[in-house]
Amino acid sequence: MSVLVVTGTGTEIGKTVSTAAVAAAALARGRSVAMLKPAQTGVAEGEPGDTAEVARLAGAVTLLELARYPEPLAPATAARRAGRPPVRPHEVAEAAEKLATEHDLVLVEGAGGLLVRFDETGATLADAARLLGAPVLVVAPAGLGTLNATALTTEALRARGLECPGVVIGSWPVAPDLASRCNVADLPESSGVPLLGAVPAGAAALPPADFRAGAPGWLAPRLDGTWEPTRLAA
């Protein structure tokens, strides 16, 4: 798994902090890591974006951002409104493949969900993953509504012949409600893929050293960690 695409079931669900956790766990195992952000939206030039946040939390990660658009919109819309060229799936694949020649793991973090449009043709992150032949990790919220959104995402991946190694909960609450607790068991059943971790809420506010020390404990062995779903059940 030299390239791993990271998508979410929506926005603001902990996708970037989950990407940082995967990077930190891989680095802790002695692997070299790169992070590719095809399209950064909603961030002005000169401001730190998602790549900078991953490096801040995880450490020595090679960073590459292909395009940046100032308005917080879908990449295709943001590119059009900014009068800038959109990102094309083949550009994402080429950049990731080049990084993969020099790193043990390349993390490709999308914007929003799997089928958010990159360009006017309707191309998406799924098209880039298909060109790469890369698995797609799904980040999902913990609570009510996540079962449907996660199942729709994994179904879309299967329909496109894309591998999904599993789901990571992007923000596990300090005091989980009934729905969140039940979703620990229900997410694998409804999505058809295993639960591969849960990043605690507020993890991004931890000192970077604490984040890096904690990350392996938030992720399953498939993601270079030590986490097990029974921890959440407990």
Molecular structure report:
The chain is globular, with a radius of gyration of 16 Å. With 234 residues, it is an alpha/beta fold. The model has no long low-confidence stretch (mean pLDDT 95). The chain has helices at 15-28, 50-58, 75-82, 89-100, 125-132, 146-159, 178-191, 208-214, 230-233; strands at residues 3-8, 33-41, 61-69, 105-113, 136-140, 167-172, 195-200. The protein is built from 9 helices and 7 strands. The protein starts with a strand and ends with a helix. It has a 7-stranded parallel beta sheet, with helices on both faces. The relative contact order is 0.19. α1 (15-28) runs parallel beside α2 and α6 packs parallel to α7.
How would you describe the shape? globular
What summary fits the major beta sheet?
7 strands, parallel
Strand order of the largest sheet: 3-2-4-1-5-6-7
**Structural class by helix and strand composition:** alpha/beta
Strand content: 15-25%
* Poorly predicted spans: none
- Report Rg: 16 Å
**Would you count the extended β strands for me?**
7
Number of helices: 9
Helix content: 25-40%
Q: What are the secondary-structure elements, in order, as H or E?
A: EHEHEHHEHEHEHEHH
Arithmetic mean pLDDT: 95
- How many angstroms does the end-to-end distance come to? 31 Å
Pfam family, one: AAA_26
Subcellular location: Cytoplasm
Keywords: ATP-binding, Biotin biosynthesis, Cytoplasm, Ligase, Magnesium, Metal-binding, Nucleotide-binding
Family: Belongs to the dethiobiotin synthetase family.
